[in-house]
Amino acid sequence: MALTDTSAVTRRNKRRVHPVASALLRFLVMAVTTLFGLLAVTFFIGRVIPIDPVLAIVGDRAPQHVVERIRLELGLDLPLYQQFWIYLKQVLSGDFGTSVLTTNPVLTDILRVFPATIELATIGTIIGAVLGIPLGVLAAVKRGSIADQVVRVIGLVGYSVPIFWLGLLALVLFYAKLGWVAYPGRMDIVYEYTFTPNSGFYLVDAILQREWAVVWDLFRHIILPGSLLGYFSLAYISRMTRSFMLNELAQEYIVAARAKGLSETRIIWFHALRNAAVPLVTVIALSYAGLLEGSVLTETIFSWPGLGLYITNSLQNADMNAVLGGTVVIGAVFVAINLLSDLLYRTLDPRTRSR
C-alpha cells in the first residue's frame, strides 16, 4: 500500500514539473532565436549602411594599399554570410572586437559604461513604481472622476511628449533658471580626482565609503535624468495598474469582501492590489528593461556616460564594432529580464504553473 502511495506521489510530482520545464525550454528557445535574429539584423544593417569601417580606422588620406590591407585583415573582402559566421563565433566567445574610438576591447568599454546606465534606469524605475502604482490605484478606485482623468492625462503626456524636448525643457528650468540640480554629467569634476569607485556604481560606492559630499553631488546630477525616465516609467506603470485594478475590483471576491463588512481601504490595498501585484511584476520588469535600452536620448541630452551615450558616440564615429556590441548586450539584457520576470510570475501565481 505504501509503495502504491509513493508511486502516485511521484507521478503527480512529475506532472507538476513537466509543464514548468516545458515552458522554460520553450522560452529559452525563443530567447536564443530572438538574440540570433537581433544579432543578424544588427550585423547586416551595420554592413549595408554607407559607412566604411576601414576608413574609420585608417582615415580618409591613407594610401590605397593600406586600405586594402586592412580590409583583408578584417575579412571585409569575404561574402556577407561568411563575415557574419566569423562575427557570430567571435561573439559567442565573448569577443566583440576592438573599438576604433577608444582602442579598447568593446567588451571592456561596455563593462565600464553599463553600470552608469543601470544606475540611471534603476532610479527611474523606482520613481515610476513608487508613484505610478498609487496613481493607478487611485484612478481605478475613482473611475470616471476628475482624479481619474488627471492620472490618465499624466500618462498620455508621458507617452506623447518627445523625451528630448522634455529633457531640454527640464534643463532650462531646473538647472539654468532655478539652479536646483547640477549641470549635465555624472559627477562634479572636482570629485573625479578624489573619489575612487570600486564597482562602477558610483552611488553605491560613495555610500559604502561614506563619502557623503560625493553622494550629494551624485544625487544632484542623477535626479533630473532619473526623474525624466521615472516619468515615462510612471506613465506606463500607472496605466497598467489602473487596468489591473479595474479587473480585480470587478471580481466576485471583492463583492464578498464588501458583504462581510471589510473596510474599503483593506479591500483595495490588501485584497485587490495583492492580486494585481502579480502581473505588475512583469510590467515593472519590462519597464526597467525598456529604460535600459531606451535611455539613449536621455544620456545624450544629459551627457550621462552610460551605454546609450557610448553607442551614440560610436555611431557618429563609424565605430561599428562598438555599436554592434552595445546593441547585442542590450538585447541580451532585455531577454534575460523578460525570462526572469516570466519565471517570477509563474512562482507568484500558482495558476500558471499548470500551463
Automatic annotation (TrEMBL):
Residues spanning the membrane: 20-45, 120-141, 153-176, 218-237, 276-302, 322-345
Gene3D superfamilies: MetI-like
Keyword Transport: yes
Cellular component aspect of the GO annotation: plasma membrane
Keywords assigned by UniProt, alphabetized: Cell membrane, Membrane, Transmembrane, Transmembrane helix, Transport
Membrane topology summary: Multi-pass membrane protein
PROSITE patterns (UniProt xref): ABC_TM1
Molecular function, one GO term: dipeptide transmembrane transporter activity
ABC transmembrane type-1 domain boundaries: 114-345
Main location: membrane
Protein family: Belongs to the binding-protein-dependent transport system permease family.
Record protein name field: Peptide ABC transporter permease
